[in-house]
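Bumping my old thread because nobody answered last time. Still need a sequence for this structure:
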């Protein structure tokens, strides 16, 4: 039976990259609150309009919006789940524990310099949400998504000044979850630095 897994870690630590791969290779459902919010912004929904100013400045979107969004998503999802970028506050973690039993929390360990270097060179697909890196994980054709052929773009919040604020918000609001899940005996930490393939093998071993 597939499990319920949380990917925890600073911005740019590889949560999306490995979540996509687990979903493709092992059939997990990846639920990324960041992807859902960006899609809502593109579609100009009420949630998207509310979330935009928080995302653009690197702040967290309010808990009530996120929790309602996740409740709806979970109710429509069957099988194993990878949560990418959720929960991000103790309030969100408490809410999640009312709906699902978590099996493992994988904490990606990463330093700030690597985060900045990765995110300033990240390119994302607006259609299928695939992520690339101009050097470490480049698309086969420049600026074009390998998976769906859409033109890649640079996220507005991947500017250095906003990345630094996201890191500060991570330390203040999300890092307490490391202790929270450690006390529950659910936390394992992986080194987020190294080749994508090697880190992925580590993660697969941890969850299989
Ligand atoms: P979100 O989209 O979740 O952003 P994030 O957590 O900051 O994480 P990222 O998507 O930036 O990075 P990642 O860890 O997925 O790394 P990736 O795999 O892309 O959230 C964005 C915003 O939405 C938040 O700031 C907030 O406003 C809002 N939000 C979302 N969820 C929320 C919530 N629950 N509550 C409140 N607000 C919420 O990798 C990064 C780059 O590195 C890529 O280019 C990749 O190709 C490359 N890379 C990956 N692995 C390696 C490697 N091993 N070596 C070299 N390069 C690598």
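Sorry it took so long. Here it is:
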């Amino acid at each position: 039976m597939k499990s319920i897994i949380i990917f925890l870690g600073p911005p740019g630590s590889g949560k999306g990259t490995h979540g996509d791969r687990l979903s493709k290779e092992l059939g997990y459902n990846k639920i990324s609150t960041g992807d859902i919010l960006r899609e809502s912004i593109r579609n100009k929904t009420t949630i998207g309009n509310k979330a935009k100013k928080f995302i653009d400045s690197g702040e967290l979107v309010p808990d009530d919006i996120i929790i309602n969004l996740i409740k709806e998503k979970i109710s429509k999802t069957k099988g194993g789940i990878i949560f990418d970028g959720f929960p991000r506050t103790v309030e969100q973690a408490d809410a999640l524990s009312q709906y699902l039993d978590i099996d493992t929390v994988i904490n990606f360990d990463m330093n700030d310099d690597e985060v900045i270097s990765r995110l300033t060179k990240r390119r994302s697909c607006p259609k299928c949400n695939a992520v690339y890196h101009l050097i470490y994980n480049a698309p086969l054709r420049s600026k074009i998504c390998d998976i769906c052929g859409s033109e890649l773009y640079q996220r507005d919040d991947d500017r250095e000044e906003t990345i630094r604020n996201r890191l500060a918000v991570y330390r203040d609001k999300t890092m307490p979850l490391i202790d929270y899940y450690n006390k529950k005996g659910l936390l394992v930490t992986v080194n987020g630095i190294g080749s994508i393939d090697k880190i992925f093998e580590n993660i697969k071993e941890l969850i299989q």
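The chain is about 50% helix and 15% strand. Let me know if any region looks off to you.
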